[in-house]
């Protein structure tokens, strides 16, 4: 009996030691994961800051300057820096996949397509910032210029191309492109077109004061994330993120992919949860870029311009299509359309100035 009790206690002791070792390994993995994320975020901030400084100097040399609301002439089109921010990732991911696997993964292709579509929209916005006709304003003004003078303004270009980009983003997000056909696909494309058109135009309207568009983006992004959590779309992705191996994370922290943090995808994305986990990282990195951009805009170092407004609008289109149910996407369109109609007749800035709470929120953080 005494020997039996000693044997049981010995087994329990061994099991406790084994559990302790497992917990220690798990803790080390979590610490390594946290360290990788912190390093990635820090280098992302430094990389974005460097790019904004270089763009600001180059814009001053090229005289891409416009007066802000207090008549200071400062560089415009700062949102275009995002394209430079993601180039290292795109090069790293393509070259790494081709050299290591000899092929290109579908999920990474989908990710790069979305990045490419967003970049096209940002370039269109930047062209409007630098070369667009500033005498023509509002949708009505651009349509009148086309109808009366036959002038295809940069605003008309945006009016035609942005819904198309939104429809293509919706097409890329379709989970079963081959199976889905007919009215289902048509409705998806229309929904994506409306989301992109409405969101980008709203941010265009807000981009009249420093940080106003950024604050609007953060509010809508927060609502989108909360709805995504409530619907369970993000919950599955968190589990996927926890299942990532340390080797996958280590591959993410190579200098090339860290600099490009906006769309880091796992080395072997085979499940939907893994893909969405990578999407969470991309949104986190977009937040880092947004933070650095906000610091420059708040200090009146540059204007994010239409390039920044279109970047935020198309990103929110992508996030809404990826993480939220259909009812929320339609609700966004229904809520924001009246804002656009109101802004065609009245001034949003005057409306904000009339209400103390809105005015305080609008000026918060601006130097």
What gap, in angstroms, lies between the N and C termini? Answer: 79 Å
Mean pLDDT: 77
**What Rg, in angstroms, do the CA atoms define?**
24 Å
Query: How is the quaternary structure best described?
Result: single chain
Question: How many helices in DSSP terms?
Answer: 15
Order of neighbouring strands in the sheet with most strands: 1-2
The coarse overall form would be: globular
How is the main sheet built?
2 strands, antiparallel
Helix content: over 70%
Quick overview:
With 367 residues, this protein is mostly helical. It has helices at 2-62, 81-100, 106-131, 138-149, 154-173, 183-206, 212-231, 233-242, 246-252, 255-259, 272-298, 305-323, 326-345, 348-354, 356-363, and strands at 65-67, 73-75.
Write the layout of secondary structure elements.
Layout: H1 2-62, E1 65-67, E2 73-75, H2 81-100, H3 106-131, H4 138-149, H5 154-173, H6 183-206, H7 212-231, H8 233-242, H9 246-252, H10 255-259, H11 272-298, H12 305-323, H13 326-345, H14 348-354, H15 356-363
Antiparallel strand pairs: 1-2
Helix pairs in contact: 1-2, 1-9, 1-11, 2-3, 3-5, 3-12, 4-5, 5-6, 5-12, 6-7, 6-12, 6-13, 7-12, 8-11
Keywords: Membrane, Transmembrane, Transmembrane helix
Question: Overview of this structure, please?
Answer:
With 367 residues, this protein is mainly α. The protein has one domain. The chain is 78% helix and 2% strand. It contains 15 helices and 2 strands. It has helices spanning 2-62, 81-100, 106-131, 138-149, 154-173, 183-206, 212-231, 233-242, 246-252, 255-259, 272-298, 305-323, 326-345, 348-354, 356-363; strands at residues 65-67, 73-75. A two-stranded antiparallel sheet has the order 1-2. A hairpin with a 5-residue loop joins strand 1 (65-67) and strand 2 (73-75). Helix 5 crosses helix 6 (183-206). The longest helix is centred in the first third of the chain and has 61 residues, at 2-62. It is globular and about 95 Å long. Mean pLDDT is 77; it is low at 236-278.
């Amino acid at each position: 009996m005494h020997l039996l009790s000693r044997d049981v206690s010995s087994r329990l002791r061994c099991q406790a030691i084994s559990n302790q070792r497992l917990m220690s390994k798990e803790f080390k993995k979590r610490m390594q994961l946290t360290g990788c994320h912190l390093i990635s975020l820090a280098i992302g901030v430094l990389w974005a800051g460097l790019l904004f400084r270089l763009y600001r100097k180059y814009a001053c040399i090229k005289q891409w300057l416009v007066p802000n609301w207090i008549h200071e002439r400062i560089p415009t089109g700062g949102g275009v820096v995002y394209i430079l921010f993601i180039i290292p990732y795109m090069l790293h991911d393509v070259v790494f996949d081709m050299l290591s696997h000899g092929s290109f993964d579908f999920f990474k292709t989908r990710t790069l397509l979305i990045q490419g579509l967003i970049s096209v929209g940002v370039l269109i916005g930047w062209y409007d910032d630098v070369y667009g006709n500033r005498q023509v304003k509002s949708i009505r003004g651009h349509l009148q210029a086309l109808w009366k003078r036959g002038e295809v303004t940069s605003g008309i270009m945006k009016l035609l191309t942005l819904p198309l980009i939104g429809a293509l983003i919706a097409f890329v997000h379709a989970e079963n492109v081959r199976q889905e056909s007919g009215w289902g696909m048509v409705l998806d494309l229309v929904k994506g077109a409306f989301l992109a058109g409405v969101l980008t135009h709203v941010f265009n309207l807000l981009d009249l004061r420093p940080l106003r568009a950024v604050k609007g983006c953060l509010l809508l992004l927060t609502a989108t994330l909360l709805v995504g959590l409530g619907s369970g779309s993000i919950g599955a992705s968190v589990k996927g993120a926890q299942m990532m191996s340390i080797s996958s994370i280590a591959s993410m922290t190579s200098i090339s992919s860290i600099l490009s943090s906006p769309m880091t995808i796992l080395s072997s994305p085979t499940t939907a949860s893994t893909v969405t986990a990578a999407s969470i990282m991309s949104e986190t990195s977009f937040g880092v870029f947004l933070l650095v951009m906000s610091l420059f805009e708040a200090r009146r170092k540059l204007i994010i311009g239409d390039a920044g407004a279109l970047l935020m609008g198309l990103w929110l289109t992508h996030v809404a299509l990826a993480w939220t149910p259909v009812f929320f996407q339609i609700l966004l369109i229904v809520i924001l359309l009246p804002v656009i109609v109101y802004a065609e007749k009245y001034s949003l800035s005057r409306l904000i100035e009339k209400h103390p709470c809105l005015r305080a929120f609008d000026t918060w953080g601006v130097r």
